[in-house]
């Protein structure tokens, strides 16, 4: 995208968020709109495809803190009329070529981004996308693309490599991305001589802008590739092998550099971002790097204590339930959780659930009645106090 796009396009409106929206809100809005307009969900819908591209372009700027600051500064600068011709001043006829205080936003030395700089630096920064110098010539980088993958719980915990098939823009196999008809090649642009930018004078000032003849690429295609019509990319189905690391979590995003949309006419490709959705497991839950498990025990086991065998990812282990264990107590099996990036492992947290039987035999009832009669006085006093308090 060019600096002209930054000036003319309201990316906040594209995503439907306020200019003061936090990063999380911008990301949430982008994901919602990207899902709704994704080409896979709207096959053959050209408007949806254009909408998806616009949303991706907006997020590529607003989703990057540094680019967002540059974008806001540029929009503020042009929106404030900083480049308008000066009005009559001091009652003298005619107008000043530029109002320099407006140009620098009235900033004092050291008080703004362009304070202390000169006008040529300012124009250079604006028309090179905020880089502080002449823009690098050549084809533009391709857009980033996103997709979503659902993993089984066990695969997410242990890590897995899976083939990922997606239909998305890719490099044209006919011209190999240069946009030229086979047997021909792009030639150097005669206007910018391959620089991708041209210089233009305005009054006493000179500034650079993308070459209009080659759109900033630096080369011109005389005979376009019949497959991609000179763009260097086509929408096609491709399969990639994606490695999901050990312990990948639900909602995590995996970045595959250079696997996104190809740049126009041989430009560098964008990135592919894979959003991970982890299917819940029938036995285990997960909290960070710890696995969770709820195990039922009987009233007698809670009172008397027992050795309890519980499952883990590596096979069953035995945990000691001490006598007098209340329902809800958590036992910890260290090192039986999810592997961390530093090579360590989380733990398995076992929650004990004391089960009260709905029906018991006469012998068991008699035994429990005898047990109740032998309840220690201190416990009875505690219960009686609660009855008096809430009864």
Indicate the topology.
Layout: H1 3-8, H2 11-15, H3 23-37, H4 46-62, H5 65-79, H6 100-103, H7 119-127, E1 145-151, H8 153-158, E2 160-171, E3 187-188, E4 197-202, E5 205-210, E6 219-220, E7 233-244, E8 253-256, E9 272-278, E10 285-287, E11 290-298, H9 299-304, E12 306-310, E13 317-321, E14 330-333, E15 348-355, H10 362-373, H11 377-390
Helix pairs in contact: 3-4
Domain J: 10-75
Keywords: Chaperone, Cytoplasm, DNA replication, Metal-binding, Repeat, Stress response, Zinc, Zinc-finger
Cofactor: Zn(2+)
State the helical fraction. 25-40%
Strand numbers in spatial order across the main sheet: 10-11-15-14
Specify the overall morphology: elongated
The top-level CATH class of the domain at 141-186 and 221-280 is Mainly Beta
Q: Report on the biggest sheet.
A: 4 strands, mixed
- How many extended strands? 15
Broad structural category: alpha+beta
Q: CATH topology of the domain at 141-186 and 221-280, anyone? A: HSP40/DNAj peptide-binding domain
């Amino acid at each position: 995208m060019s600096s002209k796009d930054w000036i003319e396009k309201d990316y906040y409106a594209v995503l439907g968020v306020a200019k003061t929206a936090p990063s999380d809100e911008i990301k949430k809005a982008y994901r919602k709109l990207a899902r709704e307009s994704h080409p896979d969900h709207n096959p053959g819908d050209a408007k949806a495809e254009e909408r998806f591209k616009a949303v991706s372009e907006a997020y590529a700027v607003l989703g990057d803190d540094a680019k967002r600051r540059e974008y806001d500064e540029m929009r503020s600068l042009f929106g404030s009329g900083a480049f308008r011709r000066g009005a009559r001043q001091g009652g003298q006829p005619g107008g000043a070529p530029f109002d320099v205080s407006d140009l620098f936003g009235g900033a004092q030395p050291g008080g703004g981004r362009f304070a202390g700089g000169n006008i040529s630096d300012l124009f250079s920064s604006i028309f090179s996308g905020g880089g502080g110098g002449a823009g690098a010539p050549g084809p533009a980088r391709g857009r980033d693309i996103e997709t979503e993958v659902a993993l089984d719980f066990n695969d997410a915990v242990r890590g897995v490599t899976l083939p990922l098939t997606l239909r998305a823009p890719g490099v044209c196999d006919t011209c190999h991305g240069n946009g030229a008809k086979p047997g021909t090649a792009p030639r150097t642009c005669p206007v910018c001589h391959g620089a991708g930018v041209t210089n233009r004078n305005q009054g006493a000032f000179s500034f650079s802008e993308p070459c209009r003849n080659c759109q900033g690429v630096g080369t011109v295609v005389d005979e376009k590739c019949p497959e991609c019509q000179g763009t260097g990319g086509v929408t096609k189905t491709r399969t990639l092998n994606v490695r999901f690391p050990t312990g990948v979590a639900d909602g995590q995003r995996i970045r595959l550099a250079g696997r996104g949309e190809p740049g126009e006419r041989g430009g560098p490709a964008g990135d592919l971002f894979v959003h991970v959705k982890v299917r819940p497991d029938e036995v285990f839950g997960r909290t960070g790097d710890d696995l969770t498990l709820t195990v039922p025990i009987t009233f007698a086991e809670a009172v008397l204590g027992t050795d309890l065998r519980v499952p883990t990812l590596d096979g069953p282990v035995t945990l000691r339930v001490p006598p007098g264990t209340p329902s809800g107590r958590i036992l910890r099996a260290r090192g039986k959780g999810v592997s961390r990036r530093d090579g360590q492992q989380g733990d398995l947290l076992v929650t004990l659930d004391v089960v009260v039987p709905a029906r018991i035999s006469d012998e068991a009832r008699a035994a429990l009645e005898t047990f109740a009669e032998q309840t220690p006085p201190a416990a009875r006093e505690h219960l009686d106090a609660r009855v008096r308090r809430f009864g």
